[in-house]
């Protein structure tokens, strides 16, 4: 059977050390003690993972950047992304001001159709006041982010982010190339039977 995998490149901008840690920790938490993470380090700031979502096989490369300037510095990297996630501290005005500047700079440079996601982090979701939540939503609306998430530092549930991204690209793949989509899904069903080939996201 021919290997057909949907490839995605995701750039994560902001809170670099923390963001890399939560993505790795999330994937580890979904695996049992006898499994390894079906991915590898591509370079010092990028990781590649193989994921099954509803039997559709994805190869996703995630690259982490400290800020927007670091993203824009590397021309060879910046022009090939499908998804860009901005991570900010939800409770600080400085963080949101920097976001607006970096986002506008990146949008001016990148011409292709990219999914932009805003992720705000807070200390405690139960204690965050409505004004802070509304502030994050207003930033997302002002800058035209497709999705806006608010997560806790201590318990960041990023599964919902993965699911939103994969759901959208699954829909896009299915209707743009239905025949290839069915072949990719058949390959995914076969890979589901083989342990440690793909990380399965339900």
Could you name the key traits of this structure?
single chain, 202 residues, alpha/beta, 8 strands, 44% helix, 27% strand, globular
Write a structural description.
The protein has seven helices and eight strands. The chain has 202 residues and is α/β, with parallel strands linked by helices. The protein has one domain (6-201): 3-Layer(aba) Sandwich (Rossmann fold). Strands 1, 2, 3, 4, 5, 6, 7 and 8 form an eight-stranded mixed sheet that branches. β5 (83-89), α4 (93-109) and β6 (115-122) form a beta-alpha-beta unit. The chain is globular and about 55 Å long. The relative contact order is 0.19. Mean pLDDT is 81; it is low at 33-38.
The CATH superfamily label reads: P-loop containing nucleotide triphosphate hydrolases
Uncertain stretches = 33-38
Task: Please identify the top-level CATH class.
Answer: Alpha Beta
Q: Percent of residues in helical segments?
A: 40-55%
Compute the average pLDDT: 81
The assembly state of the depicted protein chains is single chain
Helices and strands in order:
Blueprint: E1 6-13, H1 16-29, E2 39-43, E3 46-53, E4 56-65, H2 68-73, H3 75-78, E5 83-89, H4 93-109, E6 115-122, H5 130-143, E7 147-152, H6 159-176, H7 178-192, E8 199-201
Parallel strand pairs: 1-4, 1-5, 3-8, 5-6, 6-7
Antiparallel strand pairs: 2-3, 3-4
Helix pairs in contact: 6-7
Q: In summary, what is this structure?
A:
By secondary structure, the protein is of the alpha/beta class.
